[in-house]
Specification:
With 553 residues, this protein is α+β, with helices and mostly antiparallel strands. Among the domains are: 24-102, no CATH class; 288-508, no CATH class. Helix content is 50%, strand content 17%. It is elongated.
Length: 553
């Protein structure tokens, strides 16, 4: 069934491009003109033997060639190819005849569009000159919008003309085994300038009930839009909700796409995005002084029916989960400044993010592959900074055992509150505030043991105190903050905390937003690529995968 935008027009342009016909000719096997016939002959013993001969017209006379029995199969195939050659030669002649009659019409049309554009630009400039002469400067917005409209309109016409002219250079524009040429079909394609009507050859496979359009493949179309339009749509979808992305794309270019269409285009990039993240990371050109790995998690709101179907458990009173955890990883480099007292700074453009809803161990493996691809060989000095969640600590021990483990100082500081509660200090009391400041100073000085001893002596709830202090007893080897600061290292996971807010929550946790599991999983890698500053490289990866040439225009 044909769509409204895709109709067959064999009566208007029934001829295939010359290159397609020549490609078919080049693919022929041995081609012999003539007819293979059988001639029975009765032998002396009364039996009948069948002889084969090739008959063909040559120099105005019927020529006959005897064909040995052993070569009958080869000649039968060759004469079939010969008939196909005759048909293709007739088709080539018809195509060339039409080309001569057209007199280079597509190229002529291109020049006509350029001339028309020149006239339109001259008209706009003349009108602007008159307005400036009468009223002074003040019509800049109108001038810009008029120019933009004229250029978009001309761009659509030029694209249409160029595609019509260059059809002969489309790779693979020829029938394949099992296919027949089914005429030309028209469709509307969204380009940066706006919608363009194009005509392309159609090849029908009756056995598989499919139609193939080599021009669509050559252009790298994605759901009826050009690669450039798709690239803008996907980037905007990674940055903002789909309805906002639709509005922004409409403002930035002459194309108009619905939110649903942008969603479909962006989600179709999931495979390419995952492949890029898994396989397209290259080693750093310069070995960094120190690398930091940070990991955390952030819940993204999922549709309730999907959470219920999965039996996901939550921390709320009803015990039902309202979100799905997104694992968030960040890897960046920095140069320590020992003893200078200044907080360390990340190396510019070094931060790479990874987002996933996989298990902690699977996510750890992904992070390790990212790390290994960027820093092959002997790992540089590496810090693994996180809270003390069991799943994250397992990532550190299983995949980054060579790293220096550091418990985020802010999480450790917050945990002091549970210890103060167990010691009976009233909330917002002066005594509690004073004790908190003292214990925090001890924490930053690496005196975790002093906190433990004093809390044990002042405890009013032994069980609660023991539970709260377990965090510090087990984490003490990873809380040597004075040593870390003296070396000029990071001691906080501010980068990953910021990523949870700016990379995850800003896109996936807006008010009234609820995701499907598949939709969330499709958008996470795209978001990670954009926020890692790797979108241009990713799109080159996409184009190569779609057999597009990555080059300067």
């Amino acid at each position: 069934m044909k769509s409204k935008k895709e109709t067959s027009t064999p009566e208007s342009r029934p001829l295939r491009p010359r290159a397609a016909i020549l490609a078919d000719i080049a693919s022929l096997g041995a081609a012999v003109r003539g007819t293979l016939s059988e001639k029975p002959r009765r032998l002396a013993d009364g039996s009948v033997r069948v002889y084969h001969q090739l008959q063909r017209w040559e120099n105005g006379r019927n020529q006959t060639i005897h064909v040995p029995e052993s070569l009958v199969g080869a000649f039968r195939a060759a004469t079939a190819e010969g008939r196909r050659l005759d048909a293709l030669a007739d088709e080539l002649s018809a195509s060339d005849t039409q080309t001569v009659l057209d007199g280079g019409a597509p190229k002529k049309k291109t020049h006509e569009i350029i001339a028309r554009l020149s006239g339109e630009l001259r008209r706009i400039c003349d009108a602007a000159d008159e307005d400036i002469a009468s009223n002074g400067l003040g019509c800049t917005k109108q001038l810009e919008e008029s120019l933009e409209s004229a250029l978009d309109k001309a761009g659509c016409g030029l694209v249409e003309a160029l595609l019509a002219r260059d059809r002969a250079q489309i790779p693979g524009d020829a029938s394949r085994p099992g296919e027949t040429f089914a005429g030309r079909r028209r469709r509307t394609v969204e380009f940066l300038f706006g919608p363009v009507q194009i005509e392309r050859d159609c090849y029908h496979d009756a056995q598989n009930e499919t139609c193939r359009f080599p021009m669509d493949e050559a252009l790298g179309l994605l759901r009826g839009v050009s690669p450039a339009v798709a690239a803008r749509a996907c980037r905007q979808a990674a940055l903002a909700p789909f309805d906002e992305a639709s509005e922004t794309c409409g403002i930035l270019s002459g194309t108009r796409m619905s939110a649903d269409r942008i969603r479909a285009i962006a989600e179709s990039m999931r495979g390419a995005a995952e492949d890029f993240l898994d396989n397209a990371t290259t080693p750093e050109s310069k070995r960094p002084a120190c690398v930091v790995v940070e990991v955390d998690g952030k819940g993204a709101p999922l549709r309730r029916r999907e959470l219920e179907a999965a039996g996901a458990k939550g921390k709320g009173e009803d015990g039902v989960a309202k979100t799905r955890e997104v694992k968030v990883g960040a890897i960046f480099s920095f140069t320590p400044n020992p003893g200078e007292g200044e907080p360390p700074q990340r190396d510019a453009d070094s931060t790479r993010y990874r987002l996933s809803t996989q298990t902690a161990d699977d996510f750890g493996e992904e992070l390790w592959h990212d790390f290994e691809a960027r820093f092959p060989g002997e790992p540089p000095l590496t810090l693994f900074i996180s809270d003390a969640a069991a799943g994250i600590l397992n990532i550190r021990s299983n995949w980054f055992p060579f790293a220096v483990g550091i418990i985020d100082v802010n999480h450790a500081t917050e945990h002091l509150g549970a210890v103060l509660d167990a010691c009976g200090f009233a909330v917002k009391s002066k005594e509690r505030d004073g004790e908190f400041k003292k214990w925090r100073a001890w924490l930053l000085a690496g005196k975790v043991e002093e906190i433990i001893l004093e809390a044990e002596g002042r405890s009013v709830d032994a069980d609660a105190c023991d539970k709260a202090l377990r965090y510090f007893r087990e984490g003490k080897p990873f809380m040597r903050y004075a040593q870390y600061r003296a070396k000029g290292w990071f001691i906080g996971s501010g980068v990953i905390e910021g990523a949870c807010k700016n990379v995850v929550a800003e896109r996936f946790c807006r008010s009234g937003m609820f995701w499907s599991g598949s939709g969330l999983d499709a958008m996470l890698p795209l978001r990670a690529i954009v926020k890692s500053g790797r979108y241009a490289a990713f799109w080159e990866h996409v184009l190569r995968g779609r057999r597009q040439i990555v080059c300067a225009a």
